[in-house]
Amino acid sequence: MALFKAHWAVPSLMVSCLLCGIAFALGHHFFYASLNSKIVQSNIEQEWNIRIGTGMAFLVKTCLTAAAGFAYTQLLWTTLRSRHATLKGVDAMFSITTNAWEFLTLELWRKGFGALPIVAVFTPAALTVQPSKQLNESKHIKPLPTINSTSPYPFAQWGNEGGGGYVAPSVAVARLVSSVASQGSILPIQAMYLNSSYSLDFYGPSLSCGPLGGNSEFHAAYDKTFQEAYGSVWGMANQVVTYFSFVPQTARDNKTGDTIINWENRTLSGLRAIFDPETILDLSGNLATIDDTASSADHQARCRFFVGFPTYGSFANRTIECGLYNSSYNVDLRFENGKQTIDIRNLTRLNPVSVATVTGQGDHTMPEVAYVSIMDSLGGILMGKIIATRYGSLQPVRTQVLSTVLTQAHDMQHLQNGFGQTGILGEKSGNGTNLTMAETLEQLVSNITLSLFSNPDLL
């Protein structure tokens, strides 16, 4: 009998297959780990992930089975050298790697139990696809919308050669302002994609509201003008004004007839006009809805309007003034399944805007046309007064404020309480918020500015 000799080829194959099996197993594990919670971009990508994973699992099984097969053969010859077995038993021992029925051979269990090739056969780790809570994010280079600053016509009725520039807001702007004022929210903006987000940096109009300006002397003149304009029986009759809004009007010197340009006199002139029955009901356009008295006098003056909630004996300190400003906006827009979410990250007021900036025909007048047209449209909605009667009714005169979201401001909740100590207190005029009228107006103009992006004709 020839002497038993170990040969380098079989051990090398056995070790190589074992190492390759371990390497493929680690590769299979880390490949699937890299796919965990990863969003699939396409069906083809998922198909290739499954192909690669299944192929690596097959190689793991193949290499480990081959290593075990080589080891089993060597162990089997060692077993047969030390034990006697029949040819049937030897045949069963060699055939068991390919025929599972050989496990029923009794001699296999008695003579070759230690060499049974119980090679673990297991399924590879499953690769499953689940709906992700995280949106699939991809970046696209797209032109961002901007407010049109090259032509005045989308925003205003514009006087051509010799027409003096701005005349009135366009129909598009008037409808947009009316829609936002009635709904109280930003109009729907067309999304670039159903699910998308982007940021905008742009210049646009904003409103700054606060207490009535001026010194104590002006406040005294304001109170006196109010009492003279309204009448000496304010608060003593069956009805009383609980809301009014006006814009400064042209003031003239009673002696010389010259135009008075200081803002205090223009303000008092506007206050008188709102209580003049002939003027307030004049629909011919003699009563301005925007502060245009500074168009040729003070280019740094801001367009103003005033809103008041008078109580008996207190007028100036119940009046707020709002001014128009050019402002920088930094806005984030997000669309999820078509639903828009808009956040103003930063709003910085830069400089006041007056009608003087939109007179003439120069290109320098273009950017502020949208600003003035919005202010004009808003002035048309607010201007007028509301009369509360002792019988609980509210009678608006010219103003459309009762059809807007401004009725939810805290100041508007007591319009029927205007009789003060002399009359009965009525019910609240609606479901309100804790926002003051000043805060509500500022928010409204910001919503109007952002709603400009909802109309392609204004971009």
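Second entry:
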Amino acid sequence: MKVYMIRHGETDANKQMIIQGRTNNPLNKTGIMQAKKTGQYLKSLQIPFDYCMTSPLDRAIHTADIIKKELNLNLETHIEKDIIERDFGAYDGRVIDDTYQEAVHGHSVPGLETDQMIEKRVADFFNKFFKNNHYENVLMITHAHVLKALLVQNLKGFSYDEYLVNCSINIIEYKDKIKVIEYNIDPINQE
């Protein structure tokens, strides 16, 4: 099974470097364009997707809808609460600044979902998903920290400090274990 994990398109909060966590922000014009280009890029690869899932947040659902339209994909979109963005607690709504990395990774933020907590949530979700399903090509729309939690556990040298572009494509394969095929593919600059 291959899972094509895509970060949602840009929101105004992304553009302004504001931590949005679980805030339900819509895509902006750039985010809509990114999702269209991502769908067009995936269409050029002719991947026969047989399952689609997304986070329950609007920015992910809208990204999925746009990509599916570009792919002419008539699959139901399954909403998966366990691939929602990290809970940043008291940091939700703050501008990312010099104190962000230290506070978030030092776990001094009230209400923060720690690295260990999100990594466990993401690992538990994928373990259950892989055990109970036998799809071939899965389209998944999610968030930066869900992707990072998976990558940090399965890609030597990857860290939460790495930036994943909006609508980046991250491909994993599961046979007996998770293997990262490629990550942070920017479909907008693939021409």
